Here is the input.
Amino acid sequence: MENTSNLNIAFFGTPELARIVLEELAQAGIRPTLVVANPDALVGRQAVMTAPPTKVWALENDIPIIQPASLSDATSLPEFTSAPWDLFIVAAYGKLIPQWLLDIPKHGTLNVHPSLLPQFRGASPIRSAILQNIRNTGVSIMVLDAQLDHGPVVAQMRTEIPAEHWPVPGLVLEEGMAHQGGALLASIIPDYLAGKLTPTEQDHTKATFCSKIEKCMSELTINPHHLPTGNDAYQTLLKIRAFDGWPETFFRHEGKRIKIKHANLAADGTLLITRIVPEGKNETDWSSYFKTT
Here is the structure.
């Protein structure tokens, strides 16, 4: 078994989910020698230039960080061509890794994917699982190839959310899957490097795909004085929970945009919205706002 502390490992990842995976690896004694993240981006209404969470983590842990705008040109990325690499790890990086990069590391590239592949290949597996009301979920560790979430699976861990806790808010489920995926990855890396694990080809005939979540998907049609009931209420709640954190669901009332922060189902099956952010105002109780408008 190889000593993981002596390995040359590059980690590709950008958002909070990837930062959690990094932390799980570090707690297991597996620290990358390089972190690769997307460039800093403008965030929020004030358009503040913000570093991605993985960059912040790398700087705090004295690990070199690069943020290439593109991975297509090998000559502009000497970090990968001037030294031997043992392993690449990818977790929510946000770009496809080109073949020239996949060919570099001695042991290939492992990817943490928050679904039970071949289910939910694509950019939004966690949010899509909530939207489609699928409680039986989990994480997969696969060997990355040039096709989207197509490579052979090294390990999987299944999680079924109890019915009484479903649907889970998207941010909560993302955090849980990130910890689970990072811990699973850390646990299998030594055996994987020692050749004790045989990757298993996915059943590509059973593959399902999910698209990127867009802001335009988050608008609801709601009459605040006649909230939906029954299946309509449940489907609306799924959407509210799926878009928790971003892009967040909203509806329009009397020309104003009302963002939904928290909702549930009442005992009679009616949608119960409890916290909102009216356009131009601070977060408030649903009942307080609609008593005064």
